[in-house]
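Are you able to produce any protein sequence you like plus the matching backbone structure tokens because I've never seen that pairing?
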Amino acid sequence: MRHQPLPPVGTFEAWRDAARALLLARVTPEEVSWSMGEVAPDLFARDSPLPDAEGTVTVPREFLQLARQAVWHRDPERFARLYTLLWRVQCEKRLIGDRGDPLVAKLNAMAKEVGRDKHKMTAFVRFRETGDPAAPRRQFAAWFEPTHFIVEPTAPFFAKRFGDMDWSIFTPDLSVHFDGTLNFAECAAKPPFPEDATEDLWRTYFRNIFNPSRLMPKAMQSEMPKKYWKNMPEAGLIPELITTAPARARAMAEAMPTIAPARAARVGEAVRQAQALREAGQDAFEVALAGCRRCPLWENATQAVPGEGPLDARLMFVGEQPGDREDLTGRPFVGPAGQLFDETLEGAGIDRDKVYVTNAVKHFKFVPRGKRRLHQNPNRDEIEHCKWWLGLERERVQPELIVAMGGTALESLTGSRRDILKRRGGVEALGDGTPLFVTVHPSFILRIPDRVRQEEERDRFRADLERLRSLTD
């Protein structure tokens, strides 16, 4: 019997290399005892160097996908099961697609459990601030208790999502630390964390999104198991919210004039939520927007960027989406396009402090190129999902005139961006009768390579804004 130890970090790569060498040496699955970390090997197993690996091993792509998930399961037999499957697929090429095979079925079930556990980690890790908020890079830490060994494969998600801060995630098996690069270390006990004032905001948000009329405790516990509650600040509210749910649901039902169809009930609930946000202060609106998960853009963006300006503004400017600077600062139109916008507003005699400025899409969509993040246009689904927030801003501000700057804004407000240059300078009526003025986005001007034509477009843009002033005087 051969003992094959594996490290707790880099486990998949170590298993893959060891399995390849063992397979090339024709070592059968029954001759190998696997372990990870400091687990004691089998009494009759022996440590011995791996034989020299000569030749190649070819496996189906589906096997590698399965192994990359199942290898992180807590089942102590996972390495042996995977090596047994690897041994068998050398002769049974189509075995990996046979879900009726007990070994294939077991490994697929393990992979599914690991995937679910990784999802729970990305959803239920709660960071607390541990460093000086004024430091160049803020410091956060969290404690999490996963079911499986998922810290290493899940860490890149957090590095990508929270790349602008230093953080640590501690678990009973392993800890991961990020300060620009990922580092792993052993962890045995939960460290003490300081109180974090932002947890009160999180509790407020959770209380406001809890719907008593749709209370299903079993379904809620299936999605958010109780084992995670002790490390989640909002979980302390759940017993009270469950207890008071029937009374709150009855009050909601009594407020309804009649028993509405299911679809009408959903629409009515959305209207009530929107009404609550309309009547709430700007801080509450921004808290709700910060938790937006209506489309996938939130996963890579730093933060949602709300509109800015007085809620009684007569003029509302709608741009396309936040850029790099807006994404980092959380304010609209503060980058190069925003500077051109401010200069042109001033030249046209319009005070920015008296207008409301926002974007059709609230999260920054980009593609990384080295250290740069290059803007990408939002697609139709992303624009459609974000129309709810723009519609809410329109209802809160109720401007006398709306300005659509660029194709994304025009599509969000009218449903079509076709012939935008022909529509430029014109006034259209929206569905509620609000007049809409069409012009280009300042970034369109900045992208013009020819300096002469760029200056011409600057003059045209200023002329558009000067016409706006005459329309609102």
